[in-house]
Amino acid sequence: MVFRTKTDEYKWWLTDMDGVLVREETAIPGAADFLKALRDKGHEYLVLTNNSIFTPRDLSARLAASGLEVPEDRIWTSALAAATFLQSQSPNSTAYVVGEAGLTTALYEAGYVMTPTNPEYVVLGETRSYSFEQIATAVQLILKGSKFIATNPDTTGPTQNGPIPATGSIAAMITAATGRKPYFVGKPNPVMFRTGLNKIGAHSEQTVMIGDRMDTDMLAGVESGLHSILVLSGSTKREEVEEYPFRPNEIANSIADLVDRV
Questions:
Q1: Among candidates 23, 18, 20, 77, which has minimal Cα distance to 46?
Q2: What are the residues whose beta carbons fall under 8 Å from the beta carbon of 109, sequence distance 6 or more?
Q3: Which of 8, 18, 33, 40 is catalytic?
Q4: In the annotation, is 33 catalytic?
Q5: Is 40 known to be catalytic?
Q6: Which residues are 16's β-sheet partners?
Q7: What distance in Å separates the CA atoms of residue 167 and residue 126, rounded to the nearest whole number?
Q8: pLDDT digits over 9-60, tens only?
Q9: Which of 107, 222, 237, 245 is most buried when burial is the number of CB atoms within 10 A of its CB?
Q10: CA 248/CA 217 separation, integer angstroms
Q11: Cβ neighbours of residue 145 under 8 Å, at least 6 residues apart?
């Protein structure tokens, strides 16, 4: 059973990006109105994404091209969550990074030095083209004692031509070669939500999480104590919800159904 609760009891809003606000490069109907309602009501919010390829500035520009106004300081990526986590664990340390600008920029701004020479961490993120040489280096460093971190566990990513291998698949390859499993920071790890909540000064009991995936968005929302709303505009069909041992608080057809409830 899915319960419906008055969302006017909530002050802060978190929302996934792909499948909730946009589908590929196109805004989902109602997304612009929803974001405007958040601004008009003065609600603090964050757009969360496991995408670690792009910086928040890049993603803000991509959303703007779709007709959605989201300032870069309202975007929270798995790369930023990973950098924040590492800064709290071992400030101003070293890392060997397999990833792109979204991840390297976040780690640089967190005070990390990126080096292949005895790094404390190997950090794996998303990239458009994985290099066998980089993966081999990551394997060798982990076997020598570097700690293994990955931005997110997603095994595939969507493209116009169909799914392609993503961070989770490459992490599995490295695990097979080293026997070491990474610590995944992004969704569904509640760490990503907690670092995002801290960024906007939010409290979990008065925060809404909107997402389109049961295995990441809703799982993390439930484990973080957020009011979780599943939208059916992305990856999950209504009948698939019954396959999971946990439930969102609500199910909506799309973000358009939530505009009047902000």
A1: 77
A2: 83
A3: 18
A4: no
A5: no
A6: 48
A7: 5
A8: 789 999 999 999 998 789 999 999 999 999 999 999 999 999 999 999 999 9
A9: 107
A10: 10
A11: none
